[in-house]
Design brief:
By secondary structure, the protein is mostly helical. The chain contains seven helices and two strands; from the N terminus they run ααββααααα. Helix content is 55%, strand content 3%. A two-stranded parallel sheet has the order 1-2. Helix 2 packs antiparallel against helix 6 and helix 6 packs across helix 7.
């Protein structure tokens, strides 16, 4: 899958080309709920569960240990991807983004690709808005 628009270039995002390409592919898989997401873990040993950065690294061919290092290095280097990999930098992981569902993480990725910022607050608000629409449709008179 080779998407160019409306996404910012890798240079504009401050990432490598492979990272941008992996984000585009991961957003699609997350929207389809084709992968398991756990924002609190970089990568499981089997490679089936991980966070945004962990999934990117694994898809790029890194080992589970390499994926963990990649995610940790992003935070320590204050890279452009740090705010996408870490919804907040608190010790207690209080931000709802740490409990993101795949579609919410996909929204954060798409926000990042189009604006350069993940806007985890907005991405997590998508869950509440979706719930409100569903409830209003269920409760609407026929």
């Amino acid at each position: 899958m080779n998407h160019c628009q409306p996404y910012l270039s890798a240079a504009a995002l401050g990432v490598e080309d492979w990272e941008r390409n992996e984000l585009i592919a991961l957003a699609s898989r997350l929207l389809n709920e084709d992968v398991a997401l756990d924002m609190t873990r970089a990568a499981s040993d089997c490679g089936s569960v991980g966070c945004v950065g962990g999934h990117m690294a694994l898809a790029h061919g890194m080992s589970a240990l390499g994926a963990r290092r990649y995610v940790q290095d992003a935070a320590q280097a204050d890279s452009a991807l740090a705010s996408l990999f870490f919804p907040d930098l608190t010790v207690n992981k209080a931000h709802p983004g740490w409990r993101a569902r795949p579609v919410e993480a996909a929204h954060a990725i798409l926000n990042f690709l189009t604006t350069g910022a993940p806007d985890w607050d907005g991405a997590m608000g998508a869950r509440a808005a979706s719930r409100r629409r569903t409830r209003s449709n269920v409760m609407a008179p026929a």
